[in-house]
UniProtKB/TrEMBL annotation:
This is Dipeptidase. InterPro entries: Metal_Hydrolase, Pept_M19. It holds the Pfam family Peptidase_M19. GO terms for biological process: proteolysis. PANTHER family: DIPEPTIDASE (PTHR10443:SF12), MICROSOMAL DIPEPTIDASE (PTHR10443). It comes from the Bacteria. PROSITE patterns: RENAL_DIPEPTIDASE_2. GO terms for molecular function: metallodipeptidase activity.
Amino acid sequence: MNIIDAHCDVLFQLWEKDLSFFSSNELQVNYKKWMKSSVKVQCFAIFVPDYVSEESQFNIALEMVDLFYTHIIEPYDDIKFISSKEDLLELKENERGAVLTLEGCHVIGRDIAKLKTLIRLGVRAVGLTWNQANAVCDGIGESRGAGLSIFGKEVVETLNKERIWTDVSHLSYQGFFDVMEIASYPMASHSNVKQLCSHRRNLDEKQISSLIERKGWMGITFVSSFLADKEPTTYQDVIRHILYVIQMGGSSSIGFGSDFDGATSYPIDLKDCLHYNRFVKELAHYIDQADLQRICYQNFIDKFPRLR
């Protein structure tokens, strides 16, 4: 079964540690593991950490774009840059797809031209915040909890026009619902169910229902602190979150957003992209083949906003 994974932080690891994408054992997603796994398409996030000075953030984002092309796309004939739904559908059997995303609009400051530049460079999903506030909106870690600013609304309207996903993972609660009112293509790239785990970044039933009603997409993440309130976790904890969303009517709205290479603790049997194979075989015991296909890849393809 082919898999599409909507979030990993490989680019950050390559930037911070100068690792080899081909074979570094420090990476949960590297070329050798990826080719042996069932992951057909992997999304790679641009994430500029908060210790980078404000004036340097956009330049660091551009460095990560360069890493994406020079370390992931250009060296390998069997990895294709994915810009559109058409690209997803045209992948050959022996090919894998790579999607470029942005995790946090702090890198653009108050400059819409910087956002448009990143889109022209290939970004196809834009997370409005990380945990902190920026010029677009408050993040979930900001006690003020403010929603979209006037500039934030301009950002979402730009994403609508460009047919780019607006990613609400990390967003404040008010910001989430502000986005639901105006975004044409809402998604949560890596968030889980708050009723099953109290992590502040998880979504409650009202939020999940809103995503489902708006025909959005939600990537279930594998980070242990998002799966259960105590560790260790297993892939059974991941399955609990999937089944919960299905029971809410969300079988056409979910997929995977592992957050590999972006955290320190994962299920004991779901440590890197190679473990997807066994995990999906287990998941198949709980849901029918049609739902399995939708969750593994079809929902992501169906909802990919840019057509060509």
